[in-house]
Amino acid sequence: MKNFIFGYARVSTEQQNLDRQIDALTRYGVNTVYMEKTTGTKRERPELNKMLERMTQDDTVVIESLSRLGRSTKDLIELTELFQSKGVHLVSLKESIDTSTSTGKLLFTLMSAIAQFERDCIADRTREGLKAARARGRKGGRPKVNPETVKKAVKLYGTKQYSIQEIEELTGVKKATLYRNL
Questions:
Q1: Confidence category of residue 2, pLDDT binned at 50, 70, 90
Q2: Is 16 found in the same domain as 93?
Q3: What is the pTM of this model?
Q4: Looking at 71, 95, 115, which one is the last position of a domain?
Q5: DSSP 3-state of 58
Q6: Residue 49 within a domain
Q7: Are the CB atoms for 51 and 82 separated by under 8 Å?
Q8: Same domain, 176 and 92
Q9: Is 72 noted as a catalytic residue in this protein?
Q10: At what angle do helices 73-86 and 102-135 cross, to 10 degrees?
Q11: Are 82 and 160 contained in the same domain?
């Protein structure tokens, strides 16, 4: 049986576009592309799981960049170990990594660690910034919605004359807030 080349493309939100990743994977020559619109921090990624089930020895998984496969070093390393245990190669186009080579394995490990370090630094700076803002009397997060406006949204919902989207537009109360108050 011929070795298969799988492509995996992911964006974090429904509004984002997969075209750039799909174009890169197609240029590489993948046989099948698995596509998802979900955050990389979620453990359950149905399309990734389908691909993982289909992989067999000597297949190759191609991604546009490491960030598309996982959001943490631990997650990336676990996936790479799974690929290794199945005899599957990983190619990351952006980072020029190919785990079928010893240099590729080393680069993958180093790049994953650096990417995790960068995310940790961003999180540290965010926490420090919030702490400094609080020390000056400012609060982070979204502004509170006026309770009277929420009551109005609940009343509109109760009339069954308006859709959730119309209620959001009329009152400015988001769907999650409305449902939380129903």
A1: low
A2: yes
A3: 0.60
A4: 115
A5: coil
A6: yes
A7: no
A8: no
A9: no
A10: 160
A11: no
- What range defines the domain where residue 166 resides? 147-181
User: Tell me, what amino acid is at 135?
Assistant: A
- Per the domain annotation, does 129 fall within a domain? no
**Which one of 12, 65, 67, 72 is the catalytic residue?**
12
> Token pair for residue 40?
């990389």
Residue 1 has pLDDT above 60, yes or no: no
Q: By C-alpha distance, which of 113, 52, 45, 63 is closest to 88?
A: 52
Strand order in the sheet with 97-98: 32-37, 5-11, 60-63, 89-92, 97-98
Closest among 29, 112, 27 to 65, alpha carbons compared: 112
Instruction: Give the pLDDT of residue 114.
Output: 77
Structure confidence at residue 3 as a pLDDT band (50, 70, 90): confident
- Both 64 and 111 in one domain: the answer is yes
The total number of structural domains that make up the chain: 2
pLDDT, one tens digit per residue, over 24-82 is: 999 999 999 999 998 767 778 899 999 999 999 999 999 999 889 876 777 887 888 88
Q: Which of 67, 99, 115 is the last residue of a domain?
A: 115
One-letter amino acid of 77 = I
Report strand pairing: 60-63 vs 32-37: unpaired
Q: What is the CATH number of the domain that holds 71?
A: 3.40.50.1390
